[in-house]
Design brief:
Elements lengths: L1 H21 L9 H30 L1
């Protein structure tokens, strides 16, 4: 359970940092405010499998 919480927290932090660095590069929605949220969700969806593997690898080997 702690690994899942750590995974979700890291995904949110890394997606937020990615959104701050990259901005709203993806044109997902017409409304600018909703597009920002959609980009943040897209960045999180992209990062989730990567962070999931890294966290569970580290939990297993540490």
């Amino acid at each position: 359970m702690p690994a899942i919480i750590l995974t979700l927290a890291l995904v949110f932090v890394l997606a937020s940092i990615g959104w701050l660095l990259l901005g709203s590069r993806l044109r997902l929605l017409a409304d600018p405010k909703l597009n920002d949220r959609a980009n943040l969700a897209a960045y999180a969806a992209i990062l989730l499998p990567l962070v999931f593997v890294v966290v569970f690898y580290l939990v297993e080997h540490l």
